[in-house]
Design a protein that fits this description.
- The protein is α/β, with parallel strands linked by helices.
- The protein folds into 2 domains: about 140 residues, Rossmann fold, CATH 3.40.50; about 150 residues, 3-Layer(aba) Sandwich (Rossmann fold).
- Helix content is about 35%, strand content about 15%.
- The structure holds N-carbamoyl-L-aspartate (NCD).
- The site of N-carbamoyl-L-aspartate (NCD) has 11 residues, from helix 2 and helix 6.
Length: about 300
């Protein structure tokens, strides 16, 4: 029984295996239509979500399985004071696998220590979001055809953006990957990401404020939303929320084969006028996420096809 709390819980070889399974699912969906017949996924979402929860649900249904769960902490027993540990033990009696999102960093890890079934972290506070990273990796593979030799710009809220933290970890294992961190001073990447990932792996990175200046050198531009729910102060959020807005004009200096990514939801940071640009990949990312979650569920449930 194995849980996925951090993207680094998966080796590079295992990620390659998941990518291969996802691509096989894309080619041969019928082969997988009954793979999880009789199995149940529990989605325990203590924090709002559209994509991630529905993506997990769609993934399980497309594998022929069933889904139980809640999408609002106020409708669960946590509103009565139940601990995450107890919830995890209880759900272990009903389901075969758990996908959990929680506003507290580390909550899915705690759940995994008490559950008797695999737990997948579907986002914990401002910390990690490994299954979004799996979606991102399949998108990079399909759009760029490689993980090595890439310059990746992360733009927006790099402090609270958990998708950024997980993707930096994942990409730090490939050769000659450079990061350009584009953010206002208040939203730079946390020190622990530098200390635990960038410095020990001798990764080349720079921190800049101007998206325009960074644009020409980027192979991938990963835009993010300013994480309103993690701000202590509304005035700071309002001041920072529209720092970066990607428009067709700002893309004029970008490479022709730039891959524009965003974990979504988008608020203002990418103008809808960019959606028709052939470099916009953020809706493909959503679909890729479903296939990677299918691959991950199969792996953790040890289903052989
Ligand atoms: C992200 C998240 O929840 O961290 N959304 C998602 O799962 N695709 C990004 C965000 O909320 O900004």
């Amino acid at each position: 029984m194995r849980s996925i709390i951090d993207i680094m819980d998966l080796s590079v070889e295992e990620i390659d295996g998941l990518l291969a399974t996802a691509e096989d699912i894309i080619e041969n969906p019928k082969k997988y239509a009954d793979a999880c017949r009789g199995k149940k996924l529990a989605t325990l979402f203590f924090e709002p979500s559209t994509r991630t929860r529905l993506s997990f649900e769609a993934a399980m249904y497309e594998l022929g399985g069933n889904v139980i769960g809640f999408s609002d902490a106020s409708s669960s027993s946590s509103s009565k004071g139940e601990s995450v540990s107890d919830t995890a033990r209880v759900i272990s009696c009903y389901a075969d696998i758990i996908a959990m999102r929680h506003h507290k960093e580390g909550a899915p890890y705690v759940a995994s220590t008490k559950a008797s079934i695999p737990v997948i972290n579907a986002g914990d506070g401002g910390h990690n979001h490994p299954t979004q990273t799996l979606a991102d990796l399949l998108t990079i593979k399909r759009e760029k055809g490689r993980f090595n030799n890439l310059t990746i710009g992360f733009c927006g809220d790099l402090k609270f953006g958990r998708t950024v933290h997980s993707l930096i970890s994942a990409m730090s294992r490939y050769e000659n990957v450079k990061f350009v961190m584009i953010s206002p001073d208040e939203l730079t990447i946390p020190d622990y990401v530098k200390q635990n990932v960038l410095i020990p792996n001798s990764i080349e990175y720079k921190e800049v404020k101007s998206l325009e200046e960074a644009m020409p050198e980027l192979d991938i531009l990963y835009m993010t939303r300013v994480q309103k729910e993690r701000f202590f102060n509304e005035a700071d959020y309002i001041r920072l929320k529209d720092t970066y807005i990607l428009t067709p004009e700002r893309l004029q200096s970008a490479k022709d084969d730039l891959c524009i990514m965003h974990p979504l939801p988008r608020v203002n940071e990418i103008s809808v006028a960019v959606d028709d640009d052939k470099r916009a990949c953020y809706f493909k990312q959503v679909l890729n996420g479903k296939y990677m979650r299918m691959a991950l569920i199969l792996k953790l449930l040890e289903v052989e096809i």
